[in-house]
Every structure is written in C-alpha cells, then in structure tokens.
Amino acid sequence: MGEVYLLWYTCRDPRLENEEELLIGVYSSIEKAEEAKVRLSTENGFKDDLGGFEICPYKINEDRWTKGFSIS
C-alpha cells in the first residue's frame, strides 16, 4: 500500500472568523472514503454544507517536512 485517502471536512460557519478543518478519517481506498462521506452526509452540520467534504490522496512512507524550523 503506497497511498491512503484522507477525508476532510471544512466548516464554513459565517459566524466564525476562521474556517475549521476536521480530519474525518484515513481510508485504504478512495471508495471507502466516498462511503464514509455518504454515511456522514445526513448528519447534523455535515448535511448543511456537503461542499465542505474533500478527499485527498496521501502517499505513505514519504517525508512531508524536509526542512528545519524555528520558533519566534
């Protein structure tokens, strides 16, 4: 397995200053991620904005942060 699929949901509440991103789950196939999206699409909050869902492929066993960092 070289890739997994992350299901994200972005809350876009006009009363909030910032959007909030929720990681719903990590799935072994895009089909399983789609099934989760369908399951959740009738739940409170999610059903109000179905456009908030996003499925992102994610390669495993790869460095994502390749530089150092500093705290200011």
Average per-residue pLDDT, rounded, comes to 91
Overall tally of structural domains? 1
What is the succession of H and E elements? EEHE
Number of strands: 3
* Poorly predicted regions: none
Structural class by SSE content: alpha+beta
Distance between the termini: 38 Å
Largest sheet: 3 strands, antiparallel
Strand content: 25-35%
Major sheet strand order? 2-1-3
In helices, the fraction of residues equals 10-25%
Morphology call:
flat
Count of DSSP H/I helices = 1
Radius of gyration: 15 Å
Task: Map the helices and strands.
Blueprint: E1 3-11, E2 20-27, H1 30-40, E3 53-59
Antiparallel strand pairs: 1-2, 1-3
Describe this protein's structure.
With 72 residues, this protein is α+β, with helices and mostly antiparallel strands. The protein has one domain (3-59). 15% of the residues lie in helices and 33% in strands. It has one helix and three strands. The chain has one helix at residues 30-40, and strands at residues 3-11, 20-27, 53-59. It has a three-stranded antiparallel β-sheet with strand order 2-1-3, with helices on one face. The N and C termini lie far apart (38 Å).
Keywords:
33% strand; 3-stranded antiparallel sheet; single chain; 3 strands; 1 helix; alpha+beta; 72 residues
A few lines on this structure:
The chain is α+β, with helices and mostly antiparallel strands.
